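3.2 Worked example (two chains)
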Amino acid sequence: MSALVKKEIRLLLPSFLIGCVLTLANWFLFWKNLLLENTGAISNMLSLIPLVVCPAVAVMIALDSFGGEVSSGTFAMLLAQPVSRLKIWQTKISLLAGALLVVGVLWFGPIFCHYHYLNNGRDNSKDLYDLFVVAVTFALVVFSGGLWTVLLLRQVAAAFWFTLLVPGVILMILVGLFAGDSGEFIEGLAVSVLGLYSLAGFFFARRLFLRAQDVQWSGGTIAMPEMRGLPAWLARPATQRVLRPRAALWRKEIQLHQSQFVMAFALLLLHLGVLAVRHFYNLKNSPDLKFVLQIFWGLWLVMPVLAGCAAVAEERKIGTLEAQLCLPVKRRTQFGIKFFVAFFLSVLLGAVMPLLLEGTRILPDVHFELGSLEPGWQGEMSPMQIDFWIALGIFNGLLPLLTFAGIAASFGAIAFYISSLMRNTLQTLAPAVLGILLAFFAQVAVSQMRQLGLYFLWQGPLPHFVAAPVMALALLALAFGNFQQVRIGWKVWWWNFVVLLLALVFAVAATSAVYHRAWEKLTSFEPPHGAARLSPSNPVSLNTRWNDISVRLPDGKIWLSYFIQSPSAKNPLAVMLGNAKVAMDEGKFISGSNWLTVERMRQDYVGLKSDGSLWVSEKPGSGIWNANEDEMGQLVRFENETHWSSLAPAGYSALLVKDDGTLWRWGATNFDFKHHGWPGLRTFTPYRLGTESNWSKIFQIDNDNYLYFRKTDGSFWVWGGSWNTNGQAQLEIEPGFMLQSVKNLGRDKFRGAVLISHGLQYKVGVRDDGTFRIWADERLEFNKHYGYYEWFPTDLQIGDDTNWIAVAGGGDKIVTLKNDGSLWLWNFQLDGRQIHWNTASFEREIQATRPVRLGTHSDWIAISGGGGNVVALAADGSLWFWPLERSDYYFNDNGNGSRLEPLLDISRKPQLLGNVFSAALNR
């Protein structure tokens, strides 16, 4: 291989490799449904790469052929080599054409596979052909444009824009002349004209190179035209000694970006032409062209990249950086001026200009879900907090504008950092694009932690407040250090890589530590408990349902309390910080003793005593949901019958079982609260259901909406849901009341059961032998028309221990209680990983799960709860609330909720709700 070929390969290699890597996005989009089914948001973002970024990199590859020579100052030496210019020309265009061909094949290959193999029976050959023609036309235009613009202008930044804008002007002229014709005619004409333009540009570039001299084009340097008297006005402030160095630096920085102003003016004229075409011409027959014209404003986002790329690298190219560092001005001042000018131009040219031309339609639709400023929670805040939320509401209205300006500024800042590592502007373009893409996907990744299986690090927008500032400061510090290096080598690159890696690790660790409240590790996890007043040897039952807590003591007394929402749950900031708490009222004992159970109905309490008597609220509660607890809490005996043995709430009625095995309903099957006030269960008369007389018990499961029935023969029946009956019977008690017989695998031997989620749903429980088991699973069944889920009985042990006595919770986190009084947390989350909906594999994962100790005490008596939270009763009578899942909702006084993104995880410390015996002492 000749030295000329090696040199040319090294010239094209950086941009070529970046282009090949970026074309992998097309392969990702092709295989995303097969390999990464849970990263839909990320794969949708990747669709921007093949449509926008890959064509931009193709332009950079085309510019590298001669632009690299011009930027590095080797063009004159190339002309002086003892090799014919024709041979040099043939070598350059051959390698450039080969590079563009390889990138084009890598780009088009997955698209062809997608159309060919995943067409779902449709003929997509025309779409594939049209895309192929557009891709080839674009490659030819870029190939010739990258040659003649560099050879004519000898300035890479100007050549970049002429390569893009000249074909754009041609397209605008064609659309203006033939707007009334069909879309197919305009597209065919455009391909033909651009093909001729490519051919003419190629021969024009060949002529320019074969006749090139070691001088620039006759038009002179592309520079900002100066107004008469402006230099004198700018020099006037410099007569003051204090401002002289700074004034010179500001003026020098503005002059450094003169080519950006010229290109911005040309882009402005072209954009005005686009607006005129969109306004005066009917483009209904050319939807593709209409789409291109509507997104034309996106070219303005290239301006921040060019402004950032030229900031430092252009100084190294023209050899003025070393002299600038010798000026009698602090280097941080020089760096600050340079960075501010690049930042200002990025916002001005990348955000302000397109907004002035296009209006607010191009603003991104981003807002915080803050809800409304309700007086109900304003009263819970101080004036400073109210002012804070009002200011945040104003910020929320400006967020689309700030986001758009932030995107433009970020593009410029990333390009500025890459520029501090490069020797000329052309070398900076491709790495800057790659750096912007990496930052973009990092932003997507931190917002898709669950889909990536990294939910355990954090959730919500906290990285924007911790990780983003850390990385920004690291990049700024490195850019300042690189700015002071006149010569850039591998040592500087390695140093930047190591520092960025350490900054990334620190940012991730700091964000995760803040999110998980690492400071709580420095304090005691649980406060001490009091002296024991309850014992596991004497049964104590704890039940939580809806917003009620009931505790049945060994002597048959029942203590009732009601969950109330603490003020912090009405404070949006408290919810975002994970500080929303659950509080409890003082609680009270139901008068009398020897209670078996007391259940809350819609507007009544219903209770059973050990003598078989039935009790109900003397007066029903008022309202539909916000019942008056004092009215409902006074229970009176219903009739004189003493043969009731089991009770379960069922909507507007209660289901009852008698000692003789008969089943009864007490109340209404439906009721219209809008037009009638609830008269109370006392006004209804129980009536018998069916003719069976072998029922023994009715019960419910935590976090489960089904009712379960057991017969005296041990058979197991369920009301609600779809159970696989395994050929067993169904029993219609009354019209619309159908029970399904389920194979009994020992449910009557379970001490407690809950419903959990792990991909699918499973019913698990603690059996009398102390084992923790799956006793029913959900499976997907199919018929001729659709698939549906159905419950199947099973019997699988979870873990190896045999000393469990209770289970509570629901969802993907539950808690079990051991006979030694310790609590254990089971986490069945899927971690957002790729899954296959297979019940057997899910069950194996559930069985392999191992619990972790919850808390430090070992004096727990009973547990209950659901919906991701658990209430535990300690031996001293205290009730503790264990938050297992955070709630991202806040509620106003009307009960309306709004979901907020979390900033911090919930506190894992238990919250003291109250003490059962405190109510007894107050009586």
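3.2.1 Second chain
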Amino acid sequence: MLETLVRDVRYAVRMLTTHRSFTVVAVAALALGIGATTAIFSVVNGVLLRPLPYADPDRLVALLHEWHDPVAPANYLDWKRQSTVFSSVGAAEYWAGNVMGEVPERVQGLRVTSDVLRMTGVRPILGRLLLPEEEAPSGERAAVLAWGYWQRRFAGRGDVLGERFVVDGASYRVVGVMPRGFDFPMFWATGVQIWTPLSIGDRATSRRSSSLRVFARLAPSVSLDAARAQMASITTALEREFPGTNRNVTVTPLETMVVGDVRTALLVLLGAVGFVLLIACANVAHMMLARASARQREMNVRLAIGASRGRLLRQLLTESLVLGLAGGAAGVVLAMIGVRTFVRLSAGSIPRVEEIGLDVGMLAFTAIISLATGLAFGLIPALRVSRVAVADALRDGARGSTEGAHRGRLRALLVGSEIALALVLLTAAGLAMRSFMALRSIDPGFDPAGVLSAAVSVRGTSQEAPGRRTAFYTAALDRVRELPGVEQASFINHLPIGGDVWGFGFRVEGRARPRPGEEPRAVYRVVFPGYFEVVRLPLMRGRTITEADRLGMNPVVVVNEWFARRHWPNEDAVGKRITLDPDADDPTWVTVVGVVKNAVRSDWSAPPEEEMFLPYFQTRGYLEGEGGHVAYLTLVLRASCQTGRRCDPGRLAPAVRDAIGSVDRAVPVTQVQTVRAVVDGATARPRLTMALLATFAAVALVLAAVGIYGVISYSVSRRTHEIGVRVALGATPASVVRLVVGQGMLVVACGATAGVAGALLVTRFMTTMVYGVRVTDPLTYLSVTLLLVSVAVAASFIPARRAARIDPLVAMRSE
């Protein structure tokens, strides 16, 4: 059997190399299908299928308000004390600090309780994890380093344990180093560089200041439903005792939090490449059918001299498998290129992207796919050839006759299936494209073109003191404004879209005091004068923040249109008053002096909500307060650009760093980026999905066109005599063209009908992926159907024209 297999493989290779055109086209089609399938499956495997790199990751959960909102310290402590369904409960709080040294830098970190890293089950490669006693306010400041930060900051030295480094003016001692690739919690705060102890301290009774993310590990034998039931009981009791503090608490598997809404998009892409692979198989199958028909006499001779039908079947299947493996080998190359491209384009928009790659498992998957596709497209042609009787084979489809009816119907079925699959893909791509266009047409409210942003934090430097902080920012702003090429500059606490979103409770003058937990909240921004002019956020009524808005003057605020419309409908908001201390008996009232256009806050497609802008020089917390949040501002500047020339504010980045450094070299300038890049990042995922679906749809369209062309061309070649007779009897070239094109269009019509039905069924899974368009959008269906029919007509017209030019005398002699 082994010797026979080797002979079959050699013969298959010889036959494929002899018919090079056929082999090249078939291998190319299979390489596209197999390569795309392997690349996308490697993404799905890395992001969705591969377990999170923790011990028993399916037992880890996140406890939050409404799936993503943070938790107050007092609530966390109560949940931990009262719950019995968790073996451990811990909390984490995001922070970013300035690391002092020859080159100051800003480091991203998490303050965590000792339970958090321990519940992952991952041991450090050096040292130990954080200890419970280090959570005390007087405890030692310890730090566990991420592998990448250890390599970069400490050169990967093995003697790093015990070494001290300064963050925000405080000395931390290195107690451990986590393994390479370790990241926790892999959502909300990704790419953490250091973990330090979280001290609740005097916040233990606070139920209003929510900044914690709570994580837990389910106790053995406890189900997720049981955990949710107990947490619902605990939070209901706490809500009765402390109204407005324990509403909508969710218990969500950590894996769900990490993957987020990318699951649907990846599964849709996996289905799309599956369609491409099926189209490629159908394409190669009818190529094999045509080739098998041409080899029918060869098979008959081999049967006549004693070859068994099983032997012929084995030989033909061997050729198919060799062809499939050749396509798989070429597909691996395409998959490697595709994976690298995907990782590069999706950085920042797809979770766990660093775990995507081609490994031994993916190569095994490719081999299986290659063998399966080889069997898929080769089995039917092989069975048809090996089962045809010699006499029937000499009659059915013989030269000079019309093509065998059974083979014609089979080829029509294959092409119809290609048309249907291609139309489903085109519809999905059309919906993604229209959705992306709708996202791109969203008005952010401001003009991001020509604007550069940079984070400037004085935390841990000599400029952090309240008396010096304002002077530093003022001096730094003056230096930046003096730079050549800078048109305007200002500061804001958090950059829209790319920054944090902090809410603040308030009360409108003349309204009843709301019940606890039900007061309205608005996103608040603290801005320097000139901010609205820099980002060109239009003023609708009143005025903006000016240099005159300082302490001692009448407190003012600028609100957005949604805020004004929501709280003063059919009234002018300018002159109205609110208080930012809704529970006070004698509050300080702040006057609305301006209304600006609604601006995108964080989620690009989210509807507008209340937003207010406070003058920096009237906000005591920023002028006189202490803490990391008041020692951090974001610089925004508008570059002066010549009319008609492309404006790149990024070129000003080195000059901006030097200008701020001239005030104090110890202050790091980080996250320097154009606001256009921030906006592009907000739409990166739908743009990537659209590009991939459009690519797959284009490949499917080309393959379907090739399939139609191939079938019609083959049909014409088998009907040469018939067409010659028709012409000899008076048929005009136009009638011949109509006959041949009509034959193709009948198949296309059947395939398109099935494709529309399939698209209506499949695109329902894209409901959460589209924006501004329904998955049943008639314009999209009509457009892609017309596109597919147009391509099909063009593919049919070429062989039809060739048929119309057949010389009847030549055709009659060919008989």
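3.3 Remarks
The chain has a mean pLDDT of 86.
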